Amino acid sequence: MGWFSDNLGTIVISIVLVAIVALVIVKMVRDKKKGKSSCGCGCSNCAMRGSCHSSGKK
Question: How many Å apart are CA 11 and CA 28, to the nearest integer?
């Protein structure tokens, strides 16, 4: 129990950081499924517009 109490702050911060990263990944996956862009700008001038949103426009 000594090791756990000595490292409690590190453990709590690590758990919080892992939770934040997981939430960001879940949000990105949901946005990708909805067809939203991750960059926040329009796709008309983007060099990767063909591979980013390939929803049958070929």
Answer: 26
Q: What pLDDT shows up at residue 2?
A: 92
The low-confidence residues of the chain, meaning pLDDT below 50, are: 56-58
Q: Where are the domains of the chain?
A: 1-34
- Cβ partners under 8 Å of residue 5, min gap 6: none
Q: How many CA atoms lie within 13 A of 24 on its CB side?
A: 7
